[in-house]
Specification:
Number of strands: 9
CATH topology of the largest domain: 60s Ribosomal Protein L30, Chain: A
Structural class: alpha+beta
Order of helices and strands: EEHEHEHHHHHEEHEEHE
Radius of gyration: 19 Å
Length: 235
Amino acid sequence: MSRPLAVMRPELPAGIHAVPVRTPLIHPGEDLIAIIEQAISGIARSGDVIAVSETAVAIAQKQFVAAERVRPSKLAYFLSPRAGALATVNQPESLQIVIDQAGAPRVILAAVMHVLGRLIGRQGMFYEILGSAITAIDGYTGTLPPFERAIVFAPQNPDAFAESVKERTGIACAVVDANDLEKSKILGASAEIDRRNVATALLSNPHGNSDEQTPVVVLKWRSADANPLLIGDRE
């Protein structure tokens, strides 16, 4: 278990701590909930929140493809170098999957609108137009071996997964997509989770984006006041 980290966000009250929890390497088809149960034993308790990385859930569900199995088109090779250095679609294989899902005409439209949008000071048109076709894909940079060349898709039924974790552990759960750019999104959660506050508490990405091997983070509320992470505690 890593040292608890105080969550210091102006949007949240003081008293939230994040505890990154190391697990074995997650393999396709494994019972991820059993791995979580073992990893959090003695760490998490009722009133805490178990935040699980969406990449770990997706890999356990076999929701990924090796980059070598994707054959990028000329369009993918043309557009991918023009994406930002940290963008998922700066890899031709990842962009090709977006093209396959959204269709080449829509991707070309998104690229043109992105350029026009930047001319008038509007950013992110490419992502606005393509929406879930991009957000459902993680590129293969930054994933731990042996998945460093895997393009990881969004997990299936993340709400159901989070509810299953809650049923088996008795502790609230959220499936989270977070990165080192201070972006955090709750993809799925058990019913009592305050999604906005949990996402805010994870903006510093305590899971890590390198080789930490901590796909689980336990959020703890250390105050006698109502827990801002759980809706039920404030009712």
